[in-house]
Each structure stands twice: as C-alpha cells, then as structure tokens.
Amino acid sequence: MLINAYGALAGDKPLEPLRITRRSPGAHDVQIDIAYCGICHSDLHQVRAEWAGTRFPCVPGHEIVGRVSAVGAQVSGFKVGDLVGIGCIVDSCKHCPECEAGLENYCDGMVGTYNGPTPDEPGWTLGGYSQKIIVHERYVLRIRHPAEQLAAVAPLLCAGITTYSPLRHWNAGPGRKVGVAGIGGLGHMGIKLAHAMGAHVVAFTTSDSKREAARALGANEVVVSRNAEEMAAHAKSFDLILDTVAAPHDLDAFLGLLKRDGTLTLVGAPSTPHPAPGVFNLIFKRRAIAGSLIGGIPETQEMLDFCAEHGIVADIELVRADQINTAYERMLKSDVKYRFVIDSATLAA
Ligand code: NAP
Ligand code: ZN
Question: pLDDT for 19-46, tens place per residue?
C-alpha cells in the first residue's frame, strides 16, 4: 500500500513529504496506524549521513505509538484496536544466543526500524515518520498507559529503554549515586527512571537554564558540567554515570567523579570520537568505561510496564510534520524540553 511519510532524499537536503510503499501484513505481522512518533537525535545523525551507510530516501523515526489496524492469520498476541508501540528494532535472526536471551538489540542480524536491510521496497527499512508500519508481532510492544498519554509515551520506545536498560544493568537503586549527563530526550528519561528506581540522582548539564527543570524531573542535585568547582565537589563519589551527550567531549571530567569500581556508561553516539581518556584515571580506582545499545524486546516491555505503574511519561512538545526541520535545528541547540513528538495526523494533508 502507498502511504504518506516525511523523509530526506540526501544528507544535505531537508526532510520533505514523500509517498512510500508498505507491504501487506503477512501471517505473523501486525499493521499499526501510527498516531505519534518521537524525534530522536539518532534520526538526525542518520538522515544527515553523520553516521556511515545512510540509504536514501531515508525516513527516520523509531519512537512509534499507535493502534493496531490489521493482524495476520497467525498473530496471537494482538488484535485490531490495541494500543501498541514499535521501538528501534523490527527484525532479528530470532535464533542466536542474543535473540534467545531476549537481547535482540545485540543480535548481529538486528534490523533497525529505519535504514536496516529488508526484502521490502526499497530494500531498506523506512521508519515512523509515516502513517502506518507493518511489523512482525515479536517486535510489537503493548502500551498500558491511558490513551490520553499516548503522545508522551512515544519517547519511551527509544529514549526510555536506552536509559532504563543500563540503569538496570548497573544496578541503579537505593543507596547508589547515579549521574546522568546531557539533559535532552535520553537524559531527561534517565533522570526520571533512576529517580523512580530509588537512586540518588545527579544531573549534569551544559545549560544553566536547565538547573531548575532538572530538579523538577527528579534530580536530587544538578551540576553545570562547564563549572570546574561544581564538578570537583563530586570527585570520587559516583557508582554510575550515564553519558547521553550527542557530541564529542572530555570523558576524564566524568571519570574523575567515579568512586572505586564505578562505571561511566556511554549511550550518546556522536559521529566523531571522544578524545581518548587518561589511563591513570581508569587504573587507579579500577574504573570502567562501558557502552549500551537500546534494549531487548522483553526489557522494553518491562520498561513500558514500569513506566505505566509509576505514572512515567516523557515531557514533550508536539509538532506537525512540516515542523520537523525546525525541530532538528532546535534540538541541535538543546532548545527542547525534552522531546519533540510528531502528530502523525498532520501527515495526512
Ligand atoms: P538530545 O535530545 O539532543 O540530547 C543530547 C543532550 O546532550 C543535549 O540536550 C545537551 O544537554 C547535551 N549536549 C551537550 N553538549 C552538546 C553538544 N555539543 N551537542 C549536542 N548535545 C550536547 O539527544 P538524544 O535524543 O537524547 O540522544 C543523545 C545521543 O544518544 C545521540 O547521540 C543519539 O544518537 C544517541 N542514542 C543512542 C542510543 C543507544 O542505544 N546507545 C539510543 C538513542 C540515542 P544539556 O543541555 O543538558 O547539556
Ligand atoms: Zn533513538
């Protein structure tokens, strides 16, 4: 079927209205009428070819929520009318150790929601800046939040799981001091989630203007990371710092804040590398630098249910499809509290 979408024809071109083809639902497929789609900084990296390998036309979007509008004959878990979400994964090999462990995000055959290989036209996946998407039921998530909150649930599908998974893996919880660096889409979810898990949360921001707002999100303390004195006051005190910053920066400034055996986990994915950190900053306190990629499907469902139970959604600014390019420019200036979400109804025009 032909549907409306928004995407780019080249890395140096703005996004524009496109018509794209979706497959008809197969036996195991769920067809979703998209209601809202969040704008992740990864969308910008990919569509502007800041990361290698972007194929054009590129239709980004992997924070998708909507209602089921059709299901294949073999689908057992979903029915027409259900509220559902699609995150960053639409397929994987389904039989490697990672898939068997429910960690499809680490499968070598993981297919991203956009720019991933597919037999469908045009040969790579096209994402959620579109009216409909058809996905194998294994990768469809159930949404248990009230329907009125649907737009603010969308960012949980990437920003939520990308922060939830490392917070769980490195045991954020009572008695643990957790830092979250970069208060954008990911970072603001990291603060809310670490707070709900019971950790002592410190927000690191480069934006003085976010000081009060970060507290309102659940941060116990806020540090402006450009201020050396404020940083020094937290030396050798963190169990975990989650770094969501979308640009290269000095990692040593954060490593020095970790206590013995503390971990700096990178989730931000800038297109050019961070300057290499000092070895002594690692060996003297047995500190670690780690990375984490989104999360598997079972953990994404766990995160959505945790958020529904704790009343957690993203703080969003709803935009029309024709405002996506402006939203990208504002995201680059950290001028959004904290996630743009596209109202997919505006794709109809
Ligand atoms: P975002 O909304 O733009 O937030 C990034 C934040 O980083 C900004 O709000 C800003 O916070 C801080 N920052 C400081 N200096 C910056 C600079 N020079 N340029 C840009 N940001 C700067 O982005 P996001 O959607 O949260 O994504 C963050 C990063 O994570 C991106 O690189 C994205 O591709 C990546 N990502 C990774 C995964 C994964 O699985 N690992 C998943 C999704 C996204 P302050 O104003 O508070 O300083
Ligand atoms: Zn994302």
Answer: 999 999 999 999 999 999 999 999 999 9
User: Whose Cα sits closest to atom 39 in ligand 1?
Assistant: 293
Contact indicator for 82, 32 with CB cutoff of 8 Å: no
Write down the pTM of the prediction: 0.98
Condensed to tens digits (0 to 9), the pLDDT of residues 181-204 reads 999 999 999 999 999 999 999 999
Average pLDDT over all residues of the chain = 97
Question: What stretch of H or E contains 35?
Answer: strand 29-38
Atom of ligand 1 nearest to the CA of 225: 48
Out of 163, 186, 336, mutate this one to test ligand 1's pocket (max ligand atoms within 8 Å of CB): namely 186
Q: Which ligand 1 atom is nearest residue 186's CA? A: 26
Measured between alpha carbons, how far is 235 from 233 in angstroms, rounded to an integer? 6
Question: In the prediction, which pLDDT does 15 show?
Answer: 98
The single-letter DSSP state of residue 59 is -
Task: Find the residues whose C-beta lies inside 6 A of ligand 1.
Answer: 40-42, 45, 158-159, 162, 182-187, 205-207, 210, 244-247, 267-270, 292-294, 331, 334
Four-CA torsion 98, 92, 112, 107, nearest 10 degrees = 20
